Every structure is written in structure tokens, then in C-alpha cells.
Amino acid sequence: MEIFDKLTNAAKDFFIEPEEGPTPPTTPPTTQYGASTAAPRATAAPFAAPAAPFAAPTVTQAEQRHLDHIAGLLAGDGKDFSAYMKMVKSMAAAGMSGPLLYQTAFNAFSAVNGGTVPSLLASASQFEQVLATDREKVLARHREKMGEATGPGAAPSTVVQLTAQEKKLAAELAELTRQLQAKQQQLVQTQQQLAEERQKTQAALASYELANSAALAELQAHHKAAESFLNAAGTASK
What we know:
Elements: H1 2-15, H2 64-74, H3 81-93, H4 98-113, H5 117-145, H6 158-237
Helix pairs in contact: 1-3, 3-4
């Protein structure tokens, strides 16, 4: 019958599968974890471009190194749930599905390894715990890299060093901005004083010009009058 032919081929493919590196799991990788919110930044100078807020990148496919790492964690001894999953996937590729798939795969698995349902399910729980424990380790390292936690004797990560440098530069920029604002205020005051002094000087010159013009006009008028009258009187006396 066709179903038994498929089962025979699937089991044959499973048992004679060449010894290769662990097959990467087909389940989607865990979403990027440990993403922290951006730490508050120092106030930027008015003339400085504001730094873009930190946002975790969107990852649609895990890196191969992570897939290899996870595959290494799921690699068993051929007598555990990892081996059973390989058998299930092999039979599923042959067209089987549903309860028949899992029951048939278990029958074949048990016939080869002598495993029981409790031991098989316990093996699955162990693999889940391995993944959970490994994730906690990765999260701890991630927190150290992001500066959210510090391990004993651990050297500061690149993120921590750059964060410290960012704070230092932001503080220096804030101080320079303060100094610049103070100088700008001094410049405005100096310009105001200069304008006032120029106005005073121009007003004084204008006042002097008026006084000088008036005095010169008066002097010239009396000069002409005296010259005219005195000359006329001198001529008459002769």
C-alpha cells in the first residue's frame, strides 16, 4: 500500500541519514531579546544635530552563527527527543501528518531505541530547559554589553565605553554652549554700549556744530557791521 511505502522510505531515509553536523531547527528563532530602552542623553547644543533615539533593529532572519549555536544545544545522542524530531520531520516530508505522524514516528523510534513516552517527553523538557538556561546566559551577557549590569572583574564593553564617551562629549559641549551664550550676552551688551556712546558722540558733535555755526555767523555779522560803520566813520572824520 502507498502509505506503507511512504513510511518505509521515510524510516529508511532516517536510519541511513549520513552523519553530518546538527541540522538547524526549523522553528523560528527567538525574537531579539534584551533590547533596552535608550538611556537619557545630555541636552545637545542648539547648533548640534540631535542624536537619533536608539531602537532595536528589525531582524527577520537569524544569523548562521546563532543557528549553529542553537543546533549544537539540540544535538543529542540519537536516543532522545531531538532524534525523535528528526524522524517526525522525515516522515512529514513523506506526506504523513497529524496523530498518525507522531504515533508512527514514536513506534519506529521506540523500536530502534526502546524509548518510552514518559522518557521521550522528559527528554523534550530537558531540551527546553537547556534552551531557557542558555537564553538566560545570553541575556546576562547582553545586559553587560549594554551597560545594564556589570559582572565582577569584567572589562567595560564597547557600548559602555562609547556611552561614557558620549556623556563626556555631551557635557563638554554643554559647557562650551554655556560659555558661548555668556560671550553672546557680553557681545550684545558691548554692542548696546557702543551704540549709546556713538549716539552721544554724534550728538555732541552736532551740538558743537550748532554752537560753532551760530558763533561764526554772529561774529561774521558783527565783523561786517563794524567794518562797514567804522570805515564809514573814519572817512567822514577826514
